């Protein structure tokens, strides 16, 4: 009588005991994980769509894009938002804003290693903000000396620095100590003084400073120089001087030159690009949903989210919003429609006609409280809240189901081990008896 392998037999029988449960748990876990992955992809597409909506539904952005056309572009640039009103303007750039930069009157022969006093203070004031640098603190290497280079580092690193940069500049064999304001405009002039040092050469150096660059405000004229409306600004960007338009000056014109013409108007191509970005984001969302909710057929596998109530609710609400009227108009009247696949299509000719004939109506339909983009945002919000959103809650439930399957799997592993141990003991004992019988049978041969 031949012997058997107890380990192999115990493994096979223990596996048979748990196999039905193992297969069931594996199928359930795979289903839950597939749903969780699919919901994550739908949520990602939904967030991208919401971002596209938000990008054109703010106080400075809308479906309508505007543009500025300049007769010459060397002197200033214009940034135009959705609030800009169409019109023609004349702009003359008299001067650009500059920052204050000065050089201290240090003695000839000064270098980065020149020792400076370690008593007293260096005081700097810019636009009402002040710093008082205690000179006893500038010796960072602990050699008992303070150098000009250490003074520069101490100024730049001081937590109360009001907006000044200190540098050492070497030119023609000489070292110059320079202070520069980080902001332009006359209000940001640098006032510097040294006191209590006991060294006249050092204090005189900050009394006898030389302006390398004098501070000045930017100045423009709306209209011709001298007769138009004069405007000044500490920086080179004039924000909202004209409704919805920011001007950034870069180069002054010569006195007597003609002002630069600036035309503000609708950017038809920019508006269409804006709308196409919204269409693409929505259609991408629809494609993502469709790929996971297909009903299935002989040639097509059923989607893991087919019939999912959360997804059905998303589709239903978005369809309702897109098919409603806003400001007395529908999307179809503006050249937008939903095709048989539920995706947005743009009739370019009809949209261009709507732009040309009723640009304000187009803007009013898309933007504003309770209109299309605002309604889309409000309908998406309940699904996309991070902690309490419907998609987040749905994913939490699936994750909990997966965790319960893991717990059942752990219990099943223990059951397998118990069965294995029992079978192993039984077959080991049987194998021992068979060996004994084989030995006894040889006595009768």
Helix-strand blueprint:
Elements: H1 6-55, E1 66-70, E2 76-80, E3 87-95, E4 99-103, E5 115-116, E6 121-126, E7 129-134, E8 146-147, H2 148-157, E9 164-171, E10 174-184, E11 190-195, H3 200-205, E12 210-213, E13 218-222, E14 229-233, E15 237-242, E16 245-249, E17 260-266, H4 268-293, H5 309-323, E18 336-338, E19 344-346, H6 348-366, H7 372-384, H8 390-441
Antiparallel strand pairs: 1-17, 2-16, 3-13, 3-17, 4-10, 4-12, 5-8, 6-7, 6-11, 9-10, 13-14, 15-16, 18-19
Helix pairs in contact: 1-4, 1-7, 1-8, 5-7
Backbone CA Rg? 39 Å
Helix coverage percent of residues? 40-55%
The helix-and-strand class reads alpha+beta
Domain count: 3
Q: Quick one: biggest sheet?
A: 5 strands, antiparallel
Q: Order of strands in the sheet with the most strands?
A: 1-17-3-13-14
Supply the number of helical segments: 8
- Uncertain segments of ≥5 residues (pLDDT<50)? none
Overall form: flat
Spatial separation of the terminal alpha carbons: 14 Å
**How many strand units?**
19
Mean pLDDT: 89
Q: Provide the β-strand percentage band.
A: 15-25%
Order of helices and strands: HEEEEEEEEHEEEHEEEEEEHHEEHHH
Please tell me about this protein's structure.
- The chain has 445 residues and is an alpha+beta fold.
- The protein folds into 3 domains: 7-61 and 269-392; 66-97 and 218-266, no CATH class; 99-213, Immunoglobulin-like (Sandwich), CATH 2.60.40.
- 43% of the residues lie in helices and 23% in strands.
- It has 8 helices and 19 strands.
- It has helices spanning 6-55, 148-157, 200-205, 268-293, 309-323, 348-366, 372-384, 390-441; strands at residues 66-70, 76-80, 87-95, 99-103, 115-116, 121-126, 129-134, 146-147, 164-171, 174-184, 190-195, 210-213, 218-222, 229-233, 237-242, 245-249, 260-266, 336-338, 344-346.
- A hairpin with a 2-residue loop joins β9 and β10.
- The longest helix is centred in the C-terminal third of the chain and has 52 residues, at 390-441.
- The protein starts with 5 loop residues before the first helix and ends with a helix.
